[in-house]
Design a protein that fits this description.
With about 260 residues, the chain is mainly α. It has one domain. Helices cover about 60% and strands about 5% of the residues. It contains nine helices and six strands, in the order ββααααααββααββα. The strands form three sheets. It has a two-stranded antiparallel sheet. It has a two-stranded antiparallel sheet with strand order 3-4. Strands 5-6 form a two-stranded antiparallel sheet. The longest helix has 29 residues. It is globular. The termini are far apart.
Length: about 260
């Protein structure tokens, strides 16, 4: 497996890149399934599509700001690259924060039940992430440590993208593929089974998504060679641990709330 390059084609100053295309395809797929789910959650389909659009924009902004903040020493030297999202550099954890905040604002303004909308978002965003991760493949990023040429799932990384300590290695773990597959499994589980079972408990489906995604990230992130490090620790690992705590507390709190409502 080897990336064909980050650029699909260029016409003068117009450059079409695979990273942006994969993000767009992820958004389209998420919007399609959100539209299909809306009626079963008693939300107008057009409103949920608008909510997805607003949260997508908020997610892009949040993901970029989070990434820039963590890599500020680099961006301080090259501030012209802050808006260069086509080169990669969107933090999923920052994107989650941006998505949730913007979706909450939209739902409050338009009188949409936020927890139900959040559940729909939790189901479809996992599909968007599964597709969007392939943008990392085309950018030659989000790969793990070196593997033997006989390894069944090996990713060839060109010299200019390899970490200095692995310049003599050719093949690496396709960490992006592991995460993409995990995200797809989450979508299938939530869309076809758990989402239906938990529909009577608004907010719980999203918390399950958050927990499952974070567990996968905890398992995959240690493989990566390009993980953001602070104080000798992988920032995404810490963020995932925090998300798991939030998810568990959220599930317990919400279920306790709904059980109490049933008994009163």
């Amino acid at each position: 497996m080897q990336s064909p390059g980050s650029i699909i084609f260029s016409l003068g100053p117009v450059v079409v890149r695979w990273y942006g295309v994969m993000i767009a395809l992820g958004f389209i797929a998420a919007t399609y399934f959100a539209h299909r789910l809306a009626k079963s959650y008693s939300i107008e389909p057009d409103k949920i599509v608008n909510a997805i659009l607003v949260s997508f924009i908020g997610g892009i902004v949040g993901g970029r700001l989070y990434f820039v903040a963590l890599e500020w020493p680099t961006f301080a030297l090259h501030p012209e690259n802050i808006l260069a999202t086509w080169q990669g550099g969107l933090s999923i954890h920052g994107g989650m924060i941006g998505c949730v905040l913007s979706a909450y604002a939209y739902c409050q303004y338009n009188k949409i039940p936020f927890l139900k909308a959040l559940d729909i978002g939790g189901i479809v965003v996992s599909l968007g992430q599964a597709i969007g991760r392939w943008g990392n493949f085309f950018n030659n990023e989000c790969f793990g440590g070196p593997v033997d040429p006989s390894f069944p799932l090996k990713l060839y990384i060109p010299d200019e993208y390899r970490p200095i300590q692995f310049q003599n290695k050719d093949y690496f773990h396709p960490a992006f593929l592991y995460e993409s597959a995990w995200d797809l499994l989450i979508f299938l589980l939530l869309y076809f089974y758990l989402g239906k079972k938990l529909k009577q408990y608004p907010g719980v489906t999203f918390m399950v998504y958050l927990a499952l995604y974070s567990i996968g990230r905890l398992l995959i992130e240690p493989l990566r060679t390009d993980s953001i490090m602070k104080f000798g620790m992988q920032v995404p690992v810490i963020a995932s641990e925090v998300c798991i705590v939030i998810a568990v507390v959220g599930i317990i709190g919400l279920m306790a709330k709904y059980r109490k409502q049933k008994t009163t």
